[in-house]
Amino acid sequence: MNHHMPTTSGGFTPPIPRDGKNSVVWALLDNWYLQSKYALAATFFFVGFVGFGIFSQIWRSLRSRYPSLSHKKIYLLPTALARWLVFKRVFPKAWTAPRLGPLIPLGVFFLWTTIWTFSIRPYYRFQRNWGSPPLGTRAGWMAFGVVPWTLAFASRTSPMPLLTGVSAERLQVYHQYGARILLFLSVVHTIPFIYQPLKDWGAVGLAYQWEVNYQLNWTGFVGLGALFWIVFSSFAKLRAYNYTFFVFQHVLSAMVFMIMMFLHVIKMSQPTLRHAQAYIIASMVIFAFSYLTRALLHLRSGRGDASITILEGGVVRLDIETKMSWAPGQWVLVRVPSLRKFSSHPFTIASLHQPSSKSSSSTLSLLARTQSPFGLVSELHRKNHRSGTIKLVIDGPYGGDWIGEKIGWKGYDRVVLISGGSGASWTTSHFLGLLRHASDENSLVRQIDFVWVVRHSSHLSWFRPQLESALASTTLPASLVVNLKFFVSSHKGTSEASSLGGEDHESVSEPEHEKPKATSSGSADAPFELGRPDLSLMLSGMAKEAVGLSLAVGVCGPLAMIDEVEDQLSDIQVAILKGRKGCREVMGKVERFGW
Hints:
Blueprint lengths: L18 H10 L7 H30 L7 H15 L12 H20 L14 H21 L5 H5 L3 H34 L1 H10 L1 H19 L3 H6 L1 H23 L5 H31 L1 E9 L3 E8 L8 E5 L9 E4 L13 E8 L6 H8 L3 E12 L15 E7 L3 H13 L10 E8 L9 H10 L7 E8 L24 E2 L13 E3 L1 E2 L1 H11 L4 E8 L1 H19 L7 E8 L3
Parallel strand pairs: 7-8, 7-13, 8-9, 9-11, 10-12, 13-14
Antiparallel strand pairs: 1-2, 1-6, 2-5, 3-4, 3-6
Helix pairs in contact: 2-5, 3-17, 4-7, 5-7, 5-12, 7-8, 7-9, 9-11, 11-12, 16-17
């Protein structure tokens, strides 16, 4: 005796099979009640990924704890191989794709989930009313497993950096590409639920399915639309066009997506779908934890008065007296309530914290260049023609380049800091830190090279006085050599604030390569050279000169500069693996202008 499904307003009533036969079909065709295993498998993959990160951090910490290990092949060769993977380019330069290191776990996860999703057949049940399409539900469960981890990699305050030793900025690649994999799985989840009723009964069948599963359908489609917008609006050029708007709509879109996913499964009473609710609740907890910890950091950092100085080339400098502490390479979010009540702008800290006492304050110096005409920096520049003061709110500090490592740059014989344009904020803070600790007992540094490329000679005023003053006022060990190398890439005159939002960081890499010329070593009056240096040739020469020594390279600048340095770091790792004459080890730290 056949049972019948409820009749819709259009009078359509598709038949269903006998209960016994239907149960057999459900058991044979990828049992629906057991499909939560796919979300669990995705979770185990990410747990393994974090576990590998923990192992990598322990491996790196061995070098600090046992310095003699850095001279042994048992440490050097696996480390060089791992670093080669991190810096190896896979796609052409025109593509803004990750290097091989991040691509391996991302690619493995994508291929694994895709093959697993499509390798089990059949994709559909005999008819839609016999149950949900196994292809769609498999992909949906995998998508649920990805959501919490995508959010965890996004948070500036999640425990991921502490667990893996990888900064929140570098983890962004897993957040961005994790969201793209999530979108792919969500689309694969959606299509079978549209295709099968259309195939079985045509448009009237699709309308029937929409009506009887109304909440599931409309929440799913709104959530999918929000996810598509999240991914699309996150492409680099769109982010850079108006970063303030991007952050606002990105958070709002993420909230819409999570609410829709919660409503998508909240009314489901089956034990299996309660598992899905757990993944969404976990995602909401991660989201709430991120903003709660940021609020606590905000209470610690608080408000302050900043003095504003307008520098050449559309650069704004903010100096704030604060009792907060920070480490070289960290950054803060700055909000100016008088200009924008709810949006913040990221600034890399360009000064050094003075650890004299908890009651004393230090000068927090921030420099940023106008990028978009809609950005906060452009607005500060327009409303403060020369100098002035303004009230602001500081959120942070965040990031860090030596998470979980006590020695840092001091554990290498030669340190090379390379920057382009306002990227010198990052290298300057590390340079000042190296000078401060140059006489430390555990410092191995014998030589520091500070290489800075700007477009116009007037732009040297951003950091050159600070660098030269620190070098002249610091008593350095006699064995330490410090080189300040300044390069001006444009042969034209200065460009005051010539292009609010028009002249970007990549302008320093426009001219053709020129071989670097000699510059003064350890001089407070270091000259500058015209033309852009050939950084590949420079680093290759340094690696060959440093026979038997360890080399550390840090770079912050436009994408073209970072690409050139990373390519050369990859080549140097190959030379180490092949046993060629030169440095025994080279470590690289990369800081990008944007994520």
